[in-house]
Specification:
Helix content: 10-25%
Strand order of the largest sheet: 1-2-3
Order of helices and strands: HEEEEHEEEEEEH
Radius of gyration: 19 Å
Mean pLDDT: 75
Structural class: alpha/beta
């Protein structure tokens, strides 16, 4: 055996992909669950064709009123002029764009309250220089209501051991 065969064997034994009874893809590393991928992936693109929806709201509206599955709504690049509303009963939804420069969501009406808050952000997108003037960096106390593991039902999908 070549050294590369040993490396490949080592990698394949450490990372394991499973599909459970809920059609969730589970990624395991060294016998620990490190991530559960969404069981539903919905693609949104402004240009109709081989995508599921042309609007973000259409993708959200397609889900059951009481959603029990992890959903990724993959929004392709474009300017989406729509007001997006997610009912509280439609949990487990992640909306992912093609980057802030490429995927823009805008609407023409006014809002009573608009907020931009962040907490312990790091990495290339964490520079606050380009933020709106009314953005706010949350304190530990203010972020507490969002960082509670109960807020995201973490015990159902994170390995906390």
């Amino acid at each position: 055996m070549s050294p590369y065969t040993h490396i490949l064997h080592l990698v394949t034994t450490l990372i394991l992909l499973l599909i459970n009874g809920n059609n969730e893809i589970i990624i395991c590393y060294s016998n620990k669950v490190i991530m559960k991928a969404p069981s539903i992936i919905i693609i949104v693109d402004k240009n109709p064709g081989s995508v599921n929806f042309t609007s973000i709201q259409g993708a959200i509206d397609s889900l059951p009123l009481v959603n029990q599955e992890r959903v990724l709504i993959d929004v392709h690049a474009g300017i989406y002029t729509e007001k997006v509303t997610i009912p509280s009963t439609k949990a487990y939804i992640k909306i992912q764009g093609a980057g802030a420069e490429n995927t823009v969501v805008q609407w023409g009406d006014t809002a009573r309250t608009v907020t931009f808050e962040e907490y312990q952000c790091c990495g290339p997108g964490s520079n606050t220089a380009g933020r709106v003037k009314w953005s706010k960096i949350l304190t530990d106390e203010e972020a507490g209501r969002f960082t509670s593991l109960d807020f995201i039902d973490a015990s159902q999908w994170l390995d906390l051991s």
